[in-house]
């Protein structure tokens, strides 16, 4: 089974029903919300906040639907307050989560950045995930290909990747196999649903390796 296929498997067999789509999905592609102080809806990115969980697919349109159609109140069985900046706040939280995990991957030796290092990992078949920023030359980025059976992530900004590596203007990075890599992939998948798809054709055309 390829790394890509493994990333699609259920993490622990835990599923929940999305209040917007009505579909039962693995919690790795859902976002948990709870009713916080003053009856406000709070995103529980880490899945640790107390209270009954309200689950929505991590998708911009489905979160909008839940907000506009009062689905949060229906699920909570009481009137709740939903911030106008909910989607922005959720994206910010998950982005920070991805950066943090990517930084941990770097510190543990599971990630490298820079064209030459990434090229070397790809050639040696060490890399299982190729990450390239939304910025940068399309021609330059096309010189590096997603590893066979691996995953491509192309919706992070250069500034975001650079924060994880403590460098300036990082365009390319790669991840090796490991538990931390799986966590980066899972969070990046959730982040993708909150960002418009554009730019790299590997994302727009929904290739198998673009999660």
Can you tell me about this structure?
By secondary structure, the chain is α+β, with helices and mostly antiparallel strands. It folds into 2 domains: 3-88, 2-Layer Sandwich (Hypothetical Cytosolic Protein, Chain: A), CATH 3.30.1230.10; 94-204, 2-Layer Sandwich (60s Ribosomal Protein L30, Chain: A). Helix content is 39%, strand content 17%. It has helices at residues 3-8, 60-68, 71-76, 86-107, 115-123, 138-141, 158-165, 179-192, 201-204; strands spanning 15-17, 24-26, 30-35, 41-43, 54-57, 111-113, 127-132, 151-153, 172-176. β3 (30-35) and β4 form a beta hairpin. The protein is elongated, with a radius of gyration of 18 Å. The two termini are 16 Å apart.
* CATH fold group of the largest domain: 60s Ribosomal Protein L30, Chain: A
Could you give a short account of the major beta sheet?
4 strands, mixed
Tell me the distance between the termini: 16 Å
Helix fraction? Answer: 25-40%
- The total tally of domains equals 2
Contiguous helical run count:
9
Radius of gyration: 18 Å
What structural class is derived from the secondary structure elements?
alpha+beta
């Amino acid at each position: 089974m390829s790394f890509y296929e493994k990333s699609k498997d259920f993490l622990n067999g835990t599923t929940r029903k999305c209040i917007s789509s009505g579909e039962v999905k693995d919690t790795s592609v859902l976002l948990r919300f709870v009713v916080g102080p003053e009856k406000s809806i709070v995103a529980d990115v880490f899945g640790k906040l107390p209270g009954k969980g309200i689950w929505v697919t991590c998708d911009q349109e489905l979160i909008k639907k839940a907000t506009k159609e009062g689905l949060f109140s229906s699920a909570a069985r009481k009137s709740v307050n939903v911030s106008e900046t909910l989607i922005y706040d959720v994206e910010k939280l998950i982005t920070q989560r991805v950066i943090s995990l990517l930084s941990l991957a770097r510190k543990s030796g599971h990630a490298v950045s820079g064209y030459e290092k990434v090229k070397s990992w790809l050639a040696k078949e060490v890399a299982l995930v190729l990450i390239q920023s939304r910025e940068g030359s399309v021609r330059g980025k096309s010189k590096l290909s997603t590893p066979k059976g691996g995953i491509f992530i192309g919706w992070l900004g250069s500034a975001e990747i650079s924060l994880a590596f403590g460098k300036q203007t990082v365009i390319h990075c790669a991840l090796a196999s490991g538990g931390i890599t799986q966590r980066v992939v899972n969070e990046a998948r959730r982040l993708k649903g909150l960002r418009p798809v554009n730019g790299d054709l590997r994302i727009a055309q929904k290739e198998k390796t673009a999660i």
